[in-house]
Amino acid sequence: MRRLIYGFSVSVDGYINDSAGGIDWTHPDDELHQFHNDRFRDVEISLHGRRLYELMADYWPHVPADAPRIEREFATLWTEKPKVVFSRTLTEVHWNSTLISENAVEEVRRLKAGGDGVMEVGGASLAASLMPHGLIDEYQLFVMPVVLGGGTPFFPLLNTCVQLRLAETRIFDKAVLLRYLAD
């Protein structure tokens, strides 16, 4: 069965974007960017919610040829990586993406059962819909040294407790990785 990872840069107070939706404070240095590139290379399928897909699709396929090598590398990885986009409002997706408009939970169950590699979920709303069903196997929080005071929380309000086990910590110059496994 495939493992599903949910990971994001997160403020010290637990937000993945600021109250205006901005993510400028998450810009990684080369060390962290290379780590993300290497990690993403191992992902079989990337699951996106609509907002994250639109954000990524607006930028990564259009990275200029004179951009830093590390950004061009991720742009190639992202455009070529198989993606499943969950949206009720989009009518089409591009760059090796498949659109699913209904029943994200059942589709993710099907995708998990379809192999033994690694998938990642991107998008707080999509991840929030999967958490209560126990579909996320690993949480990766890249804690950035900033307090935002509001925004979209990494973890949604839940009716049940999700037990986690710390599997790894790693210190980067611009972030601390906290990697947890779901019990």
UniProtKB/TrEMBL annotation:
Where is the Bacterial bifunctional deaminase-reductase C-terminal domain positioned along the sequence? 4-177
What Pfam families does its record include?
A: RibD_C (PF01872)
Q: Which SUPFAM superfamilies match?
A: Dihydrofolate reductase-like (SSF53597)
Q: Which InterPro entries match?
A: DHFR-like_dom_sf, RibDG_C, Riboflavin_Biosynth_HTPR
The highest taxon in the source lineage is Bacteria
Identify the PANTHER family for this entry: 2,5-DIAMINO-6-RIBOSYLAMINO-4(3H)-PYRIMIDINONE 5'-PHOSPHATE REDUCTASE, DIHYDROFOLATE REDUCTASE FAMILY PROTEIN (AFU_ORTHOLOGUE AFUA_8G06820)
**What name appears for this protein in its UniProt entry?**
Dihydrofolate reductase family protein
